Amino acid sequence: MPASHNRRSDASNTARNPVPNALVTLVSGMVVVGVLLFLTRGFFAQLIFLSQSENPVRNVAVFAAIWLIAIASLKAVFTARRTGVHVFWNLFLSLAVLAHLSLLLILADNLTLFDIRRMWIERGEAGAALLFYWSELLLPLLIAVAFCLSLFRIRTWLLSRFCPSSSGVAAGLPAVVIGILAAMVVMKGPVAAQGQAGIYVLPGLFSVILFEQVMDERPERRSVTAIARQPLVSNIIVVVDESVSADFLGQDSEYALVPALKSHADAVVNYGVATSAHNCSSYSNAVLRWGVAPGAFEQALHLPTIWQYSQASGYTSTYIDGQKPPGTLTNFMNTDELSFINQVMQLNVEQIERHQAFMRIDFEIVDHLVSLVADDKPDFIYINKLGVHFPYEGKYPASSTRFQPAMALFEPIGHSDRQALMNSYKNAIAWNVNGFFERLLTRIDLDDTVVIYTSDHGQDLLEAGKGLLTHCNRNSGSAYQGMVPMVVLTTHPQLRQRFESSLAENRDQLSHFNVFPTVLEILGYDHNFVKQHYGDAMFYPVERIGKFYTSELFLPEHAQHDYEWQSVPLRTPSRLLPGALASQHAD
Q1: What digits encode the pLDDT tens for the residues 118-141?
Q2: pLDDT tens for each residue of 445-461
Q3: Smallest Cα–Cα separation from 35: which of 143, 158, 156?
Q4: Nearest to 427 by CA among 437, 435, 415
Q5: Helix, coil or strand: residue 563
Q6: Can you give the pTM of this predicted structure?
Q7: DSSP letter string over 367-426?
Q8: pLDDT (mean) for 418-424
Q9: Dist. CA 250–CA 148, nearest whole Å
Q10: Distance in angstroms (rounded) separating the CA atoms of residues 177 and 197
Q11: What are the strands, taking DSSP E only, across 388-519?
C-alpha cells in the first residue's frame, strides 16, 4: 500500500510539472549513462578479442551474460523496495566512481590490477597522497555527487512506472557481479576485467586484492648454507633514502645541494647515477633486502634475506624505519621477516608536515647510529630514511627555503608551477639529505665502518611523461623515476681502495642489484658463491642494466611473463639547474 501511494504521489507530481521533471530525469539519465560509458574501457576491443579466441561462442556468451547481470543489478538497485538498500549501493557505487575517476586523472592511463595492488601496498602513504593530489579529486567529486543525485532521480522515475524489486535481489546482485569479476581475474588474469561494466571494475579488482591478503601464505625461506670467512669491516650500514633522484644529489664533486659530501671527500666514493630495481618503494626495498637477481623474481620469496646472511656471519642485525610509526610495517616487511632481525627501531614521531620532530626524524636516526656503531659487536644496519617523499613542502623548515619561488604548504601538484615544484624538491634535499650526511660524517668513525647509500627510486617532476605521479607509474615515460644515487662512505684503507679501484669502470653503471652481493662480500662470503647466486659486487666491473621495472615482480602467475620496464639512457641530462638563492638559515 505505501509503495502504491508513493507511485500515485510521484505520478501526481509528474503530471503537475511534466516538462521540468522530464528534463531533470533526462539529464540524470545522461549523467548515469555517460559515467558508465566513460568508465567502461575496451568494450569493443575485448569483444573482438573474444570473438577470435579458441572458443568464441562460449567466451562471447559469458561476456554478454556478465553484462546482462550487471545491467539487471543496476535496475534492481534503482527499484529496490527498501530505500536503505538503494542508499547503500548508491553511495557505494558513487564512491567507486569518485575513486576510479580520480585515479584516471592522476595516472592518465587505464586502471589495472597492478595499480590497485601497489596502492594497497603503499596505503600507508594515503595521507601524503591526499595532501599532494587533492586538486585531482575536485572534478571527480562533482561528477560523483551528480551521479549519486542522478541515481536517486532515476529511482523516483522508475518507481512511478514499475513495481519495486525485491530488496534481497537488489542487495545481492551487485555483490554477485563484483564477485564474478573478481573470480574471473583470479582465474584468467587481469585481462578478464577489460570491457566489463566500468562501475564494477574497481570494486572487482579491489576484491581480488582482499582475496590475496586472506590467502597470502608466503613460503618458508631457505636457510643460509654458505660459510662466511673473515668480514672486511665491523659495521655495515645500508641507507635507503626516499625519493632522491641521482641528478639532484650531484653527479660530480660539486654537490651543490649536499656540500657535506664535498667537505668529507676523503670518505666518499660516488658511483654517480645508478638504476633502481623498480620505481615503487616496496619493490626496490624488497630487491635490496632479499637479494633478487634480475629476471629471477619467482625465487624472491624463497631466498634467504640479508638479515639471515648477516646473522650467519656473526653480525647483529638492526632495522631502523624512519617512515612509519611503531607497529606499522611497509615495503613488504612482515612478521616472518622481522623474526630474522635482532633489533627493530621505529621512531615514535607524529607525522605532521613541517612539525619540528617530523622534519628531524632522519637526524635522530644518526643519534641511534652513533650508539650502535660505538659498541664492540659487529653490526649490520638497514635504514629506511624518511627522505623527501612528497609533499616536499613540510619536509624542511620554512626558514630554510633556499630556492624560490617554492610551492605553498599543502599546494597540490596538479596546480603547481613546475619551477616551484623543482625548487621545493631542491629545498627538501638541501635540508634533509645534506643535514643527514653532515651529522653522519662528523659523528661516526668510518675507519671500521662502511655506509652504502642509495634511494628507493627517483622522481618525475612533471616531465614529459604520463600522469601526475612522481614515481610508481606503470607507463611514466620518464627515466628520472629510475635514477638513484649510489654513494659509499668509508675511511677503512683496504676497503676504500677496493671501491676506488672499480670507480672508473663502474661510474654510472651500477644498479640496486649490485648492493646485495656487495654486502655479502663485505660480510665475508666467497666471491664465487656470491657471483653465481646474486651477480656482481661493486668491487668488480659490472654490466650496466640501465632499466628499472614498473610492473608486478613477485607473484607466481607472473613469473613466466615479460616484465614491464623503463630504460634509463646513460647520458640522461641532469635537472639540477642554477636557482635563485633566497636565504640560508641554520636550524
Answers
A1: 888 888 778 888 888 888 899 999
A2: 999 999 999 999 999 99
A3: 143
A4: 435
A5: coil
A6: 0.88
A7: HHHHHHHHSSS-EEEEEE--TTPSP-TTSS-GGG--EES-PPTT--GGG--HHHHHHHHH
A8: 93
A9: 51
A10: 9
A11: 403-404, 449-455, 483-489
Q: Around Cβ 46, how many Cβ atoms within 10 Å?
A: 20
Sign of CA dihedral 347, 349, 351, 353: negative
What are 316-346's pLDDT values in tens digits?
Answer: 999 999 998 888 888 999 899 999 999 999 9
Residues 333-368, buried b or exposed e (16+ Cβ, 10 A)?
beeebeebbeeebbbebebebeeeebbbbbbbbbeb
Residue 535 cell numbers, joined: 651477480
Backbone φ and ψ for 384, nearest 5 degrees, come out as -100, 105
Q: How many Å apart are CA 74 and CA 94, to the nearest integer?
A: 13
CB distance 278 to 484 below 8 Å: no
Q: Tell me the mean pLDDT in the region 13-24.
A: 66
Alpha-carbon distance 98 to 307, whole Å?
A: 42
Cα–Cα separations (whole angstroms), residue 254 to 193, 248, 338: 51, 11, 40
- Closest by CA to 306, choosing from 342, 335, 270, 280, is 342
Q: Which amino acid is at 339?
A: S
How many helices and strands in the chain, by DSSP H and E?
21, 11
Enter the DSSP assignment of 315: P
Cα–Cα distance for residue pair 423/403, rounded to 1 Å:
5
Please report how many Cα atoms fall inside a 13 Å half-sphere around the Cα of residue 151, on the Cβ side.
27
Residues 6+ apart with CB under 8 A from 70: 177, 196, 197, 200
